[in-house]
Structures are given as structure tokens and as C-alpha cells.
Amino acid sequence: MAGPLPIADPAPADGLLPNQARLGAESRTFHGYVHIPFCRVRCGYCDFNTYTATELEGANQSDYAEILIQEIAFSAEVMAKSNVPARKLSSVFFGGGTPTQLPAADLTRILAALSETFGILPGAEITTEANPDTVDLEYLQQLATGGFNRISFGMQSAVDSVLKTLERTHNPANVSKAVAAAKQAGLEVSVDLIYGAPGESLDEWRESLETALALEPDHISAYALIVEDGTKLARQIKSGQLAEPDEDLQADKYELAESMLEKAGFGWYEVSNWAKLDSVASTNSHQSAHNLSYWNSQDWWGYGPGAHSHVGGVRWWNVKHPSAYGQKITDGISSAAGRETLDDRVRLEERILLEIRIATGVSIELAKQVHQDAAKLIAGFIADGLIDAASAIQGQIKLTLKGRLLADSLVRQLLG
Fold first, then answer.
1. pLDDT at residue 384 above 70?
2. What integer pLDDT is reported at residue 280 of this predicted model?
3. Please, what is the average pLDDT of the chain?
4. Stated pTM of the model
5. Cα 151–chain centre separation
6. Measuring CA to CA, how many Å separate 264 from each of 1, 124, 151?
7. What is the CATH number of domain 344-416?
8. Would you say residue 50 has pLDDT above 80?
9. CB–CB of 237/227 below 8 Å?
10. What is the CATH number that goes with domain 19-295?
């Protein structure tokens, strides 16, 4: 289970949103995130809001789809009563946990409820995460028939010892089978990798990249392992059972990923994400439209325990435990645990924090609004090879490879 929720203002029981949420809504896209919090086992590094069967305390997986559908209806009422203009969904993402712990029929029922309630734009990206051990061709065909068009497999590594350190229980051989089945079902495929596990060598990371590329996916995510407080992995490192990840080796692994993925025809579009370039400039781009909605500060409603939502600079998050969440939904009240309304300054800072991570970059004019010496800082970034000089002349801060490795440092300096 994840750590404590943020401290913020109480959320009203009726869920109604302040006026700020509706201002400029027509210029923003609307997205849905569906959180499925169930897992067979808990991975040692995981800090997500997930629950194994012994931790559900009365909540029932078989009832979960119906409860989510009730929250979907509640969200539509809240948006209408708050005078937020109705918009069709531009993308939907099922995350977890392990969404494919539920029957495919449950996932498609939830998606159908979103479609009937809000409408879904033609060609919208509809994704679910999946553990490769939990799906087969029949399951994936049900998803495709029900409206899903993209699947993201949690591969993490191709090396048994690394998977063991991460306490991932899936069979590595099942990844290729699952990917092949997904392609046969007509789904776009993304695979998720994690680098920097204690003891992982550069050659082992190379092996994972080679294995992932051999699957010929449409999209690859590669995330540096972050040791989260409160996880089993953090306790193992603190006690000396495992070594702490080496930052220099992490950087070497990122550079290796960029080199290998670029040679294989993938282009980075966000610091940790690469898309196949055969259609990257078209309307059928393999970039994750849903992920980009977050980086571009669009609107989304997060359904399920612990899920976060954002509409027009109003942000809130649901209670964490499935049992408490289900009770609130059954009682017909908002499942939000807390809420905050961001002022103009914070929204501007968040735009810089997020947009600097994507390949299109962030406007220099925005940076100047936040930091009076932004021009001087940017000149230094160019001199240090952290941002692209030609793009800066055109008014955009676009990170170089070296800059991607130091993105957090750049943001800290720009925000003062």
C-alpha cells in the first residue's frame, strides 16, 4: 500500500467543483483514469495503492466493476452541477495494481459505462496495463472487441535475478507469448522496463533492452528505479541486505537505452518514454496520448481508491482503501479524501515542471514569468549543453540527452 495521502483541504461530500474548474474547459481535453488496485502479490519496490487478497478487509473484487460504474455516474452529475462543459473522453487508461486481475468482461463493462456517460472521441486511445501471466489470446480478444486498442505489459526486466530482486513473479517467457497474442488481437503494445535494481549490471540492462526490442512493440517505457520510503526494498537497503542504486550507473543505463532505442527506430517524446517512429508524426502516433495529457496539464477524472483527478487546476484524490472507497460510493457521496485549488503561480510552476520533460519542451516566456533571471539561466544551460540552442532561439526549452539526465536540477533552478 502507498504512503499517506497529501495534506490539503477537506473535499465536500457532494463533490461539487469551484468555478475555477470550468474556466477555459473548452480549450482542454478530458481523459479518464481507472484504478484497479488488486494484485496477487506485492512487489518489494512498489509504492502504488495496491492490495492483495488478504488486505481487502471486506472489499470484494467481484463487486468492484459495479462500484466503479456508480462513481462514473456520480462524476457526470458533479461535472454537470458544477457547470463544467461536457466533453467526450480523449483517452482512457486502466492502471493498477493489475487491471487484468479482473475478468475482461468487467473491464469492458467499465469502459462501456464511460462511453455511455461521456462519449469517447473516435480513435481515442484506450489502454490497460497487464501482467503477462494474467492474459491469453481469448482474454485479449475480449478486450479488443470491447473497445480497448492498446495494452501496456509490465515486463520490467528479462533477467531472472533482477526480477527476483524486484520480487516480480511473472514468468519472463510469458512476455513474448502475451505480446504475440496482443498483436494477434489487434492491440498496440507497450512494454514497461525498470533499470537500476540493486545488483543489476550494465550488461544485464542491455539484455533486457535487447529482449524488449526483439518483441517489436510500438512503445517502450524505461523508468529508473526509485526506492520509496516504507517499501520492503527500502528496508532491505537500509539493513544492508541490498545495495543502494548507483546514480552514475543509472545514468549510464539511461544513455544505453537512448542509444539502443534510437538505433532500433524509436524516438523519445518524454524523459522515460520512447515511441516507434514509423508513424510518430501522424494522427496514429505510437506516443501515449494519455501520458501526454498529464504532461500537458489537461483534465482527467481518476476513478477508484487512491486515484487522483485534475480539472482546471482543481486537484483531488480518493480515499485509499477499497473498502472505505466502496462505502462512500454506495452512500452516494464523494469518495475524495482531500482537495486543493491551485493558484495561477502554482499552475505556472507545474507547467514548467511537466512540460520540460517532453520533447516539444516548454516556452521560454513561461520560464521568464516564474524567474526574473530565466534568460541568464537558459544561456548557461545552452553553454553546458543541457538544452538545444536552435530551439532556444525559437523560444522553446528543449532538453538534450545530457539535459534529460539533469532535468530535475534544471527545474529547480528555473523555479528559483
1. yes
2. 46
3. 93
4. 0.94
5. 13
6. 37, 27, 21
7. 1.10.10
8. no
9. yes
10. 3.20.20.70
